[in-house]
Amino acid sequence: MDTKEPIQIKKFGTMAGVFTPTFLTVLGVIMFLRLPWVVGNAGIVGALLIIVVAVAITITTALSLSSITTNIRIGSGGAFSLISQSLGLEIGGAIGIPFFFSQAIAVAMYIFGFREGLQSILPDYNPLLLDILVFGLVMLIAFISTSFAFKIQYVIMAIILLSIVSIVGGLFINEPKLDFIWFGDYPGSIENNFSGSSFWLVFAVFFPAVTGVMAGANMSGDLNNPRRSIPVGTLSAVIITTFIYLGLVVVAALIATPIELVENYNVFIDKAYFGPIVLAGLLGATLSSALASFVGAPRILLALGEKRILPKSEFLSKTNIKGEPFNAMIITAVIVLIGLSLRDLNTIAPLITMFFMITYAMVNLVALIEQSLSLPSFRPTLKISIYIPLIGAFGSITVMFIINAVIAMASLVLIVLFYVYLVKKKLKSEAGDSRSGLFTALAEWATKKTTELSPTREVRSWRPDLLVPVTRPREIRSSFKLIESIVAPKGSVKFLALKNLDKDIQDKMNTFLPEVSHRLKKQNISNSYTYVSGDDFAETLKISMQSLKAAFFKPNTIFIPVSASDNLYKSYQKIIDVAEQNDYAVMLYVPYENVGLSLEKDIALWLKDFSEGWKNNFNIKNNDLAILTSLLLQKNWNGNLTVKVAIDAKAIKREEDVILLNDLVRFPVSTKVLTYSLESELEMIGKNVTDLNIFPLPKDKSVQDLLDLVNTTRTSALFCLDSSSENALV
């Protein structure tokens, strides 16, 4: 018997898992080497404004992230998990994939920064060799364990804090420069021969300094209590680092002249109380950022693998006995090595920044959507104003286009391509997401707007929304293809199944209806089904029709399949009468039993009994639904439509009237429009060879008469009765 206890996977608290990596990622190379340059260009007020605007975006993102985290059980992958749980795996994956690559390539960027600082001490060493050695150190620390990596970060944090103290100490060994400038004139940099810059250009250089708010969230799967640790650790790190940046702006302005600030990137090192500790801080900052990214990126990849988003997901989602994503770390290491081999990441760096910004924008968008829906399930313990995510989302997208509009657009296109790829994979989420709530809210908004614009449904917006009563499966089998052809692509179907006392029939219905619904959904046709109980078929359907009239998305047409073996003829007549009373249209389908719809190619439409003033009032009486249905079938069958118009002494007197009708209806060019006399109607119908006849439903005929007509012509027929919702001439 195996008595081994399961290995306890190390989990982290707020300080180690969130605060430290976020704090160290924000206080990076920009603070040491570019903050003085920012002050030299923008002046004290300009530099403070740049920091405030930049932090406004990151603090809103941090607040949005924190608010959502306090509402959900966030899984591994940080932002990926958060976005997926709200907007679905497709959008979460479309953001998560490039975000992972950004985190991985960022490791190479940080290593380059570390090597540049190291070369001031070891100028004779080969740069590529130094890069590989540094990366080897990062890998060694990370592969020993994440816990060990975080312990190393405590040491680095201590060095960075000492370096900041040393920079501030420079005020005591350098004569204060009281000629500092409040508002800079943006002279530019060494790289552009001081040919000038601008507020937004300087802002773009500084902004990457504050893009570390996700460093702690990336560890979400390794935290003891992510719901508490992510908000507390992220927000406290952002607030503390913001005050550090604001204070160093004033220090930079006092320890060096504006010219020194823009010409010398090493001002903080040269003017510090003890320069070597500042250099050590610079090296520590880049090393810690590389370490945080190399620890965080594999966990995003692990989460993508767990949701089966990427190829070889099973391989990517495996962890070792310590709970470390070993396979994902190997893949990440390969990507970092590819980044190191490029030697110059200047062309890739803006794209990396864009993916960070898109991730921040999506986090804010999720918070905005969750708040807007006002669902009872959204109960964050950290509540924020709806304006916070709005500012964060707008600011993130704006900054993208300020930095580089072309690369911003290219990155958005890449996200869309990832999304299309994932949609085709038909991913399944066990936990579900908030998309249904979002679309429901949009539907409710659209419903209110539609009602405001037009309390009654406009005839121009008519489409076939069928209510199909079902007593047994064979009724639908015989008419399914016709129903499908009528409602495609934008109509809808509601099946109203009458519960049957015969258990065998009821069991067949329980199996059949879901299959029918699934088939329609595969054709992207909106449909639903429900069961109703009642002793009288017509009375039960009457109550159902009256109830559905209160709904906005209500059916407008009753579709009744009629079989010669039915004994429901009296019920059908009652249903037709009730439909008229409740302003429903009716389609009565009578298939010729041995043929059905035959080749589904030829359609014959029979029109008669127009009102006398139809040319002026455009009222063609009970012919609208028959015309509209024939047009839908002709299009979906790609078939041949022949229209037979009855000549009478009142409404359709001559060929000119038929030509006008054709112009007003706008029949397809291929349509044959013919005339016939009412006296020879039965003879004409009998001689007609077609797959389906479509007639206006005659009120003076019984259901049995319609069956007799079909059997005489040996052709299936669809009889249509208008409501007030159709008009074929609009």
Plain-language structure description:
This protein has 730 residues and is α/β, with parallel strands linked by helices. It is built from 27 helices and ten strands. The chain folds into three domains: 14-425, Up-down Bundle (Amino acid/polyamine transporter I), CATH 1.20.1740; 456-585, Rossmann fold (3-Layer(aba) Sandwich); 591-730, HUPs (Rossmann fold), CATH 3.40.50.620. Strand 2, helix 20 (503-522) and strand 3 (526-532) form a beta-alpha-beta unit. Helix 12 (275-306) packs across helix 14 (326-342). The termini are far apart.
Shape field: elongated
Number of helices: 27
CATH superfamily of the largest domain: Amino acid/polyamine transporter I
Q: Numbering strands along the chain, what is their spatial order in the largest sheet?
A: 3-2-1-4-5-10-9-6-7-8
Topology:
Layout: H1 14-26, H2 29-33, H3 35-69, H4 79-87, H5 89-118, H6 127-144, H7 146-173, H8 199-206, H9 226-255, H10 258-263, H11 267-271, H12 275-306, H13 313-316, H14 326-342, H15 349-373, H16 387-403, H17 405-425, H18 435-453, E1 465-470, H19 473-487, E2 492-498, H20 503-522, E3 526-532, H21 537-548, E4 557-561, H22 569-581, E5 585-590, E6 602-607, H23 614-617, H24 624-637, E7 640-647, H25 655-665, E8 672-677, H26 681-687, E9 692-696, H27 703-713, E10 717-721
Parallel strand pairs: 1-2, 1-4, 2-3, 4-5, 6-7, 6-9, 7-8, 9-10
Antiparallel strand pairs: 5-10
Helix pairs in contact: 1-7, 1-9, 1-12, 3-8, 3-9, 3-15, 3-16, 4-5, 4-15, 5-6, 5-12, 5-14, 5-15, 5-17, 6-7, 6-12, 6-14, 7-9, 7-12, 12-14, 15-16, 15-17, 16-17, 19-24, 21-22
